[in-house]
Amino acid sequence: MTEFSEAAKIGLSPSGLEVVLRQVGAERYHNRHPYHQRMVNGDLTRGELQAWALNRYCYQAMIPRKDAIILARSEDPALRAAWRLRIEDHDGEDGWSGGIAKWLHLATSLGLDADAVKSERWALPATRFAVGAYYSFCAERPLLQAVASSLTELFSPVIISERVPAMLARYPYITEDTLAYFRKRPEQASRDSDFALAYAKKHAVTPELQQSVIDALVFKCDLLWAMLDALQHAYGEPGNVPPGAFCPEEAG
């Protein structure tokens, strides 16, 4: 399936599995993508940043739904107790005081209409397919793989540490208030990834299960990469915006 497909064939120790998982992130996480690199270098137009925020909203809004699926599938009270914190992080106490609301604030601070963002009607087709694929993966694959797919959060603090200071320095219309979503995310992501990593190391007890964990992380990295591929294709080159998708010049 991947260049990592032989990694667990003979069996790895828990620490050895972690080494491979971190290698996957080092090689495939989307902080290496050209769209992200253009973002941190200050090279995106306002319209490209709007497109990123709008399409990423679709992903953010789906996260508590896929987490609810994982929670419902688990027979382990400890997993359920830990996993429900993820839903609270995104939905808040009333549904609109958590991470999703903060991401919507990011999008509207960039000049987008809140109702248009929430409707997701301007999202790229590839975004819709990617978001749906992730939801289906967590609903249909073995629970261990569903949990392991969240291990991209191991690398989330890295991309945030690159993104936030660069955006504040290089885009004069972006403020700390614009990026309020990111204030708590490194701490939340570290908490969640520590739990998911420990769970994967505990339950991936055969070479086959270890490989399934590795493959789940590869799948998730590929999915996040593909979302940026779609943005780069649609907005990084003129004339490639799909019919019905967000057009910066029409958004105002």
From TrEMBL:
It catalyses: 6-(2-amino-2-carboxyethyl)-7,8-dioxo-1,2,3,4,7,8-hexahydroquinoline-2,4-dicarboxylate + 3 O2 = pyrroloquinoline quinone + 2 H2O2 + 2 H2O + H(+). GO terms for molecular function: pyrroloquinoline-quinone synthase activity. Pathway: Cofactor biosynthesis; pyrroloquinoline quinone biosynthesis. Keywords: Oxidoreductase, PQQ biosynthesis. Its EC number is 1.3.3.11. It is an enzyme of class 1 (oxidoreductase). The keyword Lipid metabolism does not apply. InterPro entries: Haem_Oase-like_multi-hlx (IPR016084), PqqC (IPR011845), PqqC-like (IPR039068), Thiaminase-2/PQQC (IPR004305). It comes from the Bacteria. Residues 22-229 form the Thiaminase-2/PQQC domain. Signal peptide: none annotated. GO terms for biological process: pyrroloquinoline quinone biosynthetic process. Belongs to the PqqC family. Ring cyclization and eight-electron oxidation of 3a-(2-amino-2-carboxyethyl)-4,5-dioxo-4,5,6,7,8,9-hexahydroquinoline-7,9-dicarboxylic-acid to PQQ. This is Pyrroloquinoline-quinone synthase. It comes from Pseudaminobacter soli.
